[in-house]
Write a structure and sequence with these properties.
Blueprint lengths: L1 E4 L12 H9 L2 E4 L6 H10 L3 E3 L7 H6 L3 E6 L2 E6 L6 H10 L4 E4 L6 E5 L2 E5 L13 E7 L2 E7 L5 E8 L1
Parallel strand pairs: 1-2, 2-3, 5-6, 6-8
Antiparallel strand pairs: 1-9, 4-5, 7-8, 9-10, 10-11
């Protein structure tokens, strides 16, 4: 399982709780789409994950920016996953970057709005913010591949499925 989180906006801890914390601990890999805010938060999230892929966001300190890139691409379950925070990408720019990277899945944060959608034929995953949802519901995303199908779910910290999508890989 791939667990996707974003926009922690913390100062000294990961702020993970409930099913979001469980999903981070159980995941083969955790993706964070930026805005940890401080290095202490990055370290706290990293300590809970088996493997962490993360990018920096517009609210991250210089120390976080020095440790992370603004774009990450990796292979998972024979899929290419692209990760950006999103503050520097219009929908068109994001679509062009996804094509350039030959991405199957595009992970973006920044808006705090949880969403599963299509972006130019690719799965777009915005986990929202589990810790600072602002006007939206708190959420994280979970992705699985089984029997040639990619499944993505948005879950609230209490485990309720907010949205889901299944598609061929």
């Amino acid at each position: 399982m791939l667990t996707v989180i974003s926009d922690t906006h913390g100062t000294d801890g990961h702020r993970l709780e409930g099913e979001t914390l469980a999903a981070v601990r159980e995941a083969d890999r955790v993706v964070h789409a930026g805005d940890f805010t401080t290095e202490a938060v990055l370290d706290a999230v990293e300590s809970e994950a088996r493997e962490l892929t993360a990018v920096y966001g517009n609210n991250d300190t210089r120390a976080v920016r020095e440790r992370l890139a603004d774009v990450a691409t990796f292979s998972w379950a024979d899929l290419t996953v692209l990760v950006v925070h999103g503050h520097e990408h219009t929908e068109t720019a994001l679509s062009m970057l996804a094509r350039q990277e030959n991405a199957d899945v595009v992970v973006v944060g920044h808006s705090h709005r949880p969403e599963l959608a299509e972006l130019d034929g690719r799965l777009l995953v915005n986990p929202g913010s589990y810790a600072d949802p602002r006007r939206y519901e708190p959420a994280h995303a979970e992705l699985d591949v089984e029997d040639g199908r990619l499944s993505a779910r948005l879950r609230s910290p209490d485990g309720t499925i907010v949205s889901s999508i299944t598609r061929k890989r």
